[in-house]
Amino acid sequence: MEISRQQWAKNEMYWRIERLKIRIQKMIYNLANIARELLWRAREKNYPKTEDGRTLLHIGCGDINSPEFINIDARKSSHIHIVTHNIFRLWMIPDNTADLIYMCHVLEHVPREKLSKVIKEMYRILKPNGKLRISVPDFDHIIAIYNDTDHQIELISPPLMGGQDYPENFHYEIYNKKYLEKILVAHKFGDVLEWNPFDVQFHNFDDWASKNVMFNNKEYPISLNLEASKLQ
Ligand SMILES: C[S@@+](CC[C@H](N)C(=O)[O-])C[C@H]1O[C@@H](n2cnc3c(N)ncnc32)[C@H](O)[C@@H]1O
Predict the structure, then answer these.
(1) In the structure, what pLDDT confidence band is assigned to residue 88 with cuts at 50, 70 and 90?
(2) CA gap 130, 95 in Å, rounded
């Protein structure tokens, strides 16, 4: 079927406008990146770094204030450098910035439909070969506690469902090693390994990663501690 000159001109105009829209979108994206980079460079001067110049982010740090880390949390406090709920969109942090991102007992507070966005955001922010260090309640440990304590729900409810004493302390997801490893690998992370809170660099504080719980005079670990590298 032959198209009229008028129709042809209309089509041509449509595609010109579409191409222009894409160019404008790219320009806005690049300008936003430049603005973000400049803003970060200005703010970075007030943020901590390690002695050898590494950038470490502690996301969901809560009360922990380790002096080498840039602290990020949803709840305001004097030691928190960046206060935000939106850990799936940390717009103020440029791509390839962090050498290490540490998240201890935070991922379980992320609703399932946002989890992928959060992991992608961590990937974006990490430098190539940078490390994502995670600790979460381990469903397999919780099941062991449940089975050893005559199936007492009240003992496993807090580690499973969260402390529920403030809005950011409710759990949305459960994890075990197989599941978390699968998620990390699906998001282009590699070299997934367990890490030991008593024998790992940049972990000289007490947090959930190293806590055990006592039931019937028996100590149980509670956490699954996994670390992965950003593959290029
Ligand atoms: C169970 S506490 C763990 C605190 C600390 N990491 C520890 O192990 O002792 C969870 C922390 O994550 C923070 N948090 C939860 N959801 C968050 C979100 N969407 N964005 C930022 N922080 C969040 C909470 O405010 C809280 O400080």
Answers:
(1) very high
(2) 12
d(CA 201, CA 182): 25
Ligand 1 midpoint to CA 94 (Å): 22
Integer-rounded Cα radius of gyration of the chain: 23
Domain range list for the chain: 1-46, 49-230
For the Cβ of 68 lying below 6 angstroms from any atom of ligand 1, the answer is no
Specify the DSSP class assigned to residue 4.
Answer: P
Among 75, 84, 168, the mutation site with the greatest number of ligand 1 atoms within 8 A of its Cβ is 168
Q: Whole-model pTM?
A: 0.91
How many angstroms is it from 82 CA to the middle of ligand 1? 13
Fold exhibited by the domain 49-230: Rossmann fold (3.40.50)
Pairing state of beta strands 82-83 and 218-221? unpaired
H or E, element range at 135: strand 126-137
Can you tell me the mean pLDDT for 50-79?
A: 98
CA dihedral 6, 11, 17, 21 (to 10 degrees): 170
Summarised one tens digit per residue, pLDDT across range 183-219 is: 999 999 999 999 999 999 999 999 999 999 998 899 9
